[in-house]
Amino acid sequence: MELINALGLDPKILIAQLVNFAIFLFILYRFAYKPILKFLDERKEKIEAGIRNAEKSEQRIKEIAEKEKEVLVKAKKEALEIINDAKEKAEKKGKDMIEKAKVDIGEVINQEKSKIQVEKAETLKAIKKEVSSLVILALEKLLAEKIDSEKDQKLIEKIIKEKS
Amino acid sequence: MKLNSKQYAQSLFEVLIESDEDSYNEYIKKFAKILFDNNQTSCLEEIVNHFDRLWNRHYKIVEAEITSAQSIDNELREDLKNYIAKLTKTTEVVIKESKDENILGGVVLKYGDKILDQSMRNKLNNLRAAMVN
What is the dihedral of CA B64, B65, B70, B74, to 10 degrees? Predict the structure, then answer.
């Protein structure tokens, strides 16, 4: 007390000031410090969530990029396969067409050959027929002139002897 | 019951074969009467043909037809008869001659159901076939 007095302080005023200060502190805590802290916590939480989201997004972007890369590689591979397959099919088709054309040409050639052979045979037959008719006609004429009764009898006798 | 031509021929043949030649006329007359009574005189030609076959077979007679382009003399005729007898292994050959200038030369013999074509026409035909083929 003496000290307070020595300092020139009035205890009552001091107490009143203390009470005032306590009230001030209470008000400050209640209406300023708490909302500020709450605001700061929320802000912190938001920032942390933002950071987490950013990390997640970054991770997601990486995953998407990788997936894109994979899809691209796969698509490239598939496209290559499709191209190769189409190429093979086209080559096979081309070969088949050439083979078929060869076979068709062969058939046509064979048919024509057969046709020519048939025509040749028919012509040859007709010539033979014509020649044989001429020969037979000449022989008939010759025989009619040369074979008289006597020669005919001898011919028949000869036939009998040969057959007996 | 009426008989057919074959049965008539067979019956007549069996009767005649067992009887002597003097009674042939009598049996033939009777046979003709039966045919007439049965109204089968239209079958006479067939009956005669069947009868001929039976008779010829029994007596080993062959009927032959000789076709030639020219007339043949007796000697050759006999040779041909002997030749046919040899071919058919028979003792008697009854021949019928015909002339056909179209055969050109040689001879065509028909006996039984056989034809032996030794004509020049046939040789020419064979030659023609050989030339064409």
Answer: 30
